[in-house]
Amino acid sequence: MSDNTAGDSGTRGDSSPEPDADTAEGAADDRPTVYDLASDCTLEDAEVDALYHAEVNCVVDYGIFVDVSDALSGLVHESNLDGDYAVGDRLVVRLTEVKENGDVAFDDENLDDYRTETVVHEPTVSRVRGLTPGDEVTVEGEVVQAKQTGGPTIFAVADASGVVSCAAFEEAGVRAYPEVEVGDMVHVSGTVETRENALQLEVDSLKRLPEGRAAEARERFEAALDERAEPADVDPLVEWEAFEPIHDDLRELARLLRRTVLAGRPIRVRHHADGDGMCAAIPVQLALENFVCDVHEDPDAAQHLFKRLPSKAPYYEMEDVTRDLNFALEGRARHGQKLPFLLMLDNGSTEEDVPAYENLAHYDIPIAVVDHHHPDPEAVEPLLDAHVNPYLHDEDYRVTTGMMCVELARLIDPSITGELEHVPAVAGLSDRSKAETMDDYVALAEGAGYDESDLLDIGEALDYAAHWLRYSEGKTLVNDALNVGCEDEARHEELVEFLSERADRDVQRQLDAVDDHVEHERLASGAHLYRIDLDEYAHRFTYPAPGKTTGELHDTRVKETGDPVITIGYGPDFCVLRSDGVRLDIPNMVTELNEELPEAGVSGGGHLVVGSIKFVKGRRSAVIETLVEKMADAEIDEALSSTVAIDD
């Protein structure tokens, strides 16, 4: 029997005789105890020979039937009655016998003085992980979803071991247990069954825990989540001393993401729509989806709780955040979900992201960023729950987001390591990294069966696919091209060959179109400056996009000259910048342009040597010429490069 603090003397609504003065002043209370069972108490909460408050529910010739709780009733035989009773009368009874068939017998007790103690039902709580069809169980956890269907109400309840769907039926299309809301700590009891290849609890009872007990349950729940959220203990794929503090940050983010899954919150990923962005997002997606499947009893949970979408701009645009927010609010309204956790990859570190983040802040949507663009930490970090960026540890863009996210994925789910050994090299080559460990990453990929030409082809295939996918996820296509989560090795090889060859053909066609129209000048610093009007001389609305066209043109000029080179590709209201051997500091240039040409509406950013800028169409000439002036004053630094540079 579990008894809580003593209640006021008396039966339900009736007071027992007042204690004498000695008792009232704290002397030992030797009065008999009468237990008042909570409505959900069962026979497990009672004991033979104990006294209970009861209520008459039926009068028969041979006695009365009484309820001591909603789930526990029995007979007081006429031979044991001490008076006459009617339905609804209250009395004190003693439990005298529990028969083999489960019937319970009571005696009527006439007491002059007693004290009352309330008994709260303490069911045997089962863990979600390990439930078996046919079991009658009680689960304690947090309601993480409450979805009304045309039939039952489906509650998703999470404990630290997993999440299970619980079906409660009031009547078709009517909300069962309307007092229970997402975020409540509950006890839900019922029978475990199988529905559409998933375990489901058919609810007999679902109760919000009282405030005090809810706080205790919440404390246990949170502590257990913290324990299970602990990331795997894995070392980075290659030794890299400069990466160690970044790896510590990734570990904390892995813990946060695992905890998010355990708490039943959806995750929405936004990533830059290029090779490095995809090399970042795909491993994380695979790791998180695996973990979702491990946590949720519903095998389709990952489809509902994880969403990945590319972003074209180098920052989180209001168009994207508005779509994401609308999707999240619709999910909450239609499916009873929590609002999602937003994970920004290869994007999201700059002041341009702040308006979008502030929009999400109205709804308390948590945000984390993994990025290698030059950050504005003072602007973004007050709005972020986690921020991983090499610049925060005196490193730079050469540590690509794909490299970091491969390690993040392994911390979440180390079992996928074998599928990811080539991905950091693809990310580095795609983003033209000159990191000191690129040779090690390429060697690691070669050990996994990919030579350097394979890695370059995969990067080209990803870039080509990203262009045509535009704002779509393209999960199977991208996974097959990267060979992560791909079920057919031959299809991967054929797809990469096809896409990379098409990409190479289209790039060459574009270079042929622009070559005769490239303007060249030598800056006072000695650097070469190349300009191309992409609106006038490049094929439009096809592959390669302006950024890719500028990058490919830039690479050819770097190889031709062997000198420091800057390339500008521009359209009516944008320009794309590439630099080798010149320290441009593009984010700083954007800030200065806004100060010097406030009417031009300049926005954008990037790395020290790679970036894109938008501006008002009518101020293009002023923006471009001011940029050129700044480039002429930029410091020559041969260590800075945006081209592929892998030692043979």
From TrEMBL:
InterPro entries assigned to the protein according to its UniProt record, in alphabetical order: DDH_dom, DHH_sf, NA-bd_OB-fold, NA-bd_OB_tRNA, S1_domain
Family matches, as SMART domains: S1
MF term (GO), any: nucleic acid binding
Biased composition (Polar residues): 1-14
Domain S1 motif: 49-109
Organism domain of life: Archaea
Annotated region (Disordered), positions in chain: 1-33
Protein name (Swiss-Prot/TrEMBL): Phosphoesterase RecJ domain protein
